[in-house]
Amino acid sequence: MVGAHVSTAKGIENAVTNAAAIGANSFALFVKSQRKWVSPDLTEHSIKEFKARMEKHRYANGMVLAHGSYLINLGNPDPDSRAKSYACFVDDLKRCEALGIELYNFHPGSTVGKATTDESLALIADCINRAHQETRNVIAVLENMAGAGNIVGSEFSHLAGIIERVEDKSRVGVCIDTCHAFAAGYDIRTKEGWESTMKEFNETVGVKYLRGMHLNDSKTVYKSKKDRHENIGLGYLGLNAFHHILSDSRTQGIPLILETPSFEQPKEVWGKEIEVLQRLSGNVQDESGKPDFDGLVALIKGAVKEAETKNGGLKAKKSAKPKAVDVKRKRKGSVEDDEATEEDD
Q1: pTM for the full predicted model
Q2: What does the UniProt keyword field contain (predicted)?
């Protein structure tokens, strides 16, 4: 169920249309501005139109992976800062419920250097428990992180430490980001490495909690602890990594979301990446009977090059998701208030 994190510009209902336009059969979106603590309420028109378009394009509610605000830090030990994050968190969940979205993905948080990792994990779990009391059915999906600075969530044990403290475990899950996992020290480039990673995930967290994935190649090397997304097959992970992921039965039926650079040409770039990823789940052999990874990588590389040209030779690759770091705009108490925070997502 491959898709991408699409734009909601000019109305949240447009996310559905944007997803359909790139051939996605799942998608992610922000349910409000990811840069503001408070945003205008969703209008009844937008809610109704969102649901109508979901039905028109045959998207099941479970194929949408909403993404939380970058400002949220439920692991902050400062009560006032955490309360502000919690209010933003619950507002996101209620927006998901209004839209009929079942899965809400968010970054676990940061100790901001003022708490132990375990203390922050307990605070995050407490916020999830409280939020479950204020909402009905949205599943809080924890994202693994790359391991920069004081941010928690780079180790599967961190995610397990949160989940074990959550009272209603039917409403908590995990989203594995391939770039984050690689940067944090999970070598998923080979089938053996992927199997080893999934074995550890199942033993530590439980594969039943896997509710989605972010499919991103990496611009940086293994164990870099840096979150730099690259287009599929063009980074240090390589296309082979996505071959064994896409052909794994454990990744079937959950949203697999691209957060790669689109160069402001989502149909051309994400559309081609989705096409290639769908082919990876089946027969990708060339005439000699060997996997035709080179041919598939060439398709993506060609789409990227053409998009760059159309976009005036843009060098800094852009996606629909702005970077999470802006030094001039850091907010105290948020995950961004960390000198070495995650930069893409």
Answers
A1: 0.90
A2: DNA damage, DNA repair, Hydrolase, Metal-binding, Zinc
The CA R_g of the chain, rounded to the nearest whole Å, is 19
Q: Is 214 a catalytic residue?
A: yes
Helix axes 14-21, 44-56, angle to 10 degrees: 30
Residues 6 or more apart whose CB falls under 8 angstroms from that of 101 comprise 31, 61, 64, 66, 138
Residue 39 CA, chain-centre distance (Å), reads 21
Active site residue 158: no
- In tens, the pLDDT along 110-152 reads 999 999 999 999 999 999 999 999 999 999 999 999 999 999 9
In angstroms, the CA 179 to CA 221 distance is 10
Catalytic residue among 13, 155, 177, 230: 177
Of the residues 5, 82, 95, 107, only one is catalytic, namely 107
180 classed as catalytic? yes
CATH for 2-329 is: 3.20.20.150
Question: Beta strand 217-218 with 229-230: parallel, antiparallel or unpaired?
Answer: antiparallel
- The catalytically annotated residue of 13, 155, 259, 345 is 259
Which residues is 5 bridged to in the sheet? 28
Q: Which two tokens stand for residue 15?
A: 């996310």
Closest to 135 measured CA to CA, from 74, 102, 173, 90:
90
Other beta carbons within 10 Å of 326 = 13
Query: Where in the chain are the domains?
Result: 2-329
Per-residue pLDDT tens over the stretch 61-114:
999 999 999 999 999 999 999 999 999 999 999 999 999 999 999 999 999 999
Q: Is 143 a catalytic residue?
A: yes
